[in-house]
Amino acid sequence: MSTCAAVSRTLDEPLAGTAATARTWLLVEQPGPWGKQALTQSRLDAALGAELERSASAHGARVALIRRPARADGADGPAATPGAPRRVFLARTLPGNAWIRTALLAEDALGTLRDLDFAALDGDRGPAALPAGWVPYTGDPLALVCTNGRRDRCCAVLGRPLAARLAAMGGADVWEITHIGGHRFAPTLLTLPGGYAYGRLDAVRAADVLDAVRAGRVPTEGCRGRSTWDAPGQRAELAVREHTGEPEADALTVETVLPAEADRTEGTARTDGTAPAEGAARVGGTTRAAEAVRADPPRPRRWSVTVAHRDGRRWHLTLSEQTAGAPRPASCGAEPGPAGSLTVERIVSAAHQVPAAAGTPASPSVTHP
Questions:
Q1: Residue spans per domain, the chain
Q2: pLDDT at 66 over 60
Q3: Residue 283 CA to chain centroid, in angstroms?
């Protein structure tokens, strides 16, 4: 039987606009086995995992477990030493304000993660909202490869060898991660602090991606999108990059994501390109409410998206959700369903607007998540 990744690759299912949505990522080192729902099915205290997941998801954040990669010979990574401290990372992915803070916590101190104020972190205080003990991370970019075979075998079969190769090559701080969405695009990679996700990578292409990330650039080949934005925002940003050739990671911001005129009675306007409400359908993502859209879609959904450059340029895009091609499973063992993708119908360049001088509000202002 074909795997979900093999079917998706054969169908050449589009990658753009399929990244998980998260403005903030909390990563907790947890060696050892992971279950399908790793936050509550691992050696991490299940009550703590469930509480972190609830509090994070309410404020545009995601929590995942990480561990050091297996060795290139296939042996497991470093074993957990009882009582050994755990590395934790908190990453914010906003353009122009992307950062990582890290801490080393004793195993019996992981409960202090309950003190994280995700609402404050999502506001203006940023790192200042963190408790004492969190320090700026100054190492290589974080390279997080999804390897949780209990969620989908493609992640383990394809992801673990990639993580091992990247760790052996150096130049990035490589970790295995429990889940970043999109099993069928395995092997998948998330880079932080920028938040760009990639799919269907081999070691050579992944190394090229990490070289670019270190230089502050965004390769668009194989890119699924920036996790800061929802699916239409991700697709629109990548379309503008392809249209203009803009490589700099922090040059573009998704200003608005609105239902297109014909669809405005069917959706809620978002004015910052960030995540839809919990349960909203996402194309190619992990939200299960998308099944309802698949079941009987009356017509393609459409969005109007505005993408801004830091030099004042803007582009207005119209996107539509299209369902075409042969059915494919979203993950191994799932029933095949219609494959949805986001199509860019048009890109219109707006009149150039010079950015405001320092200390003067821009007009119109950019609303950041």
A1: 4-214, 230-349
A2: yes
A3: 14
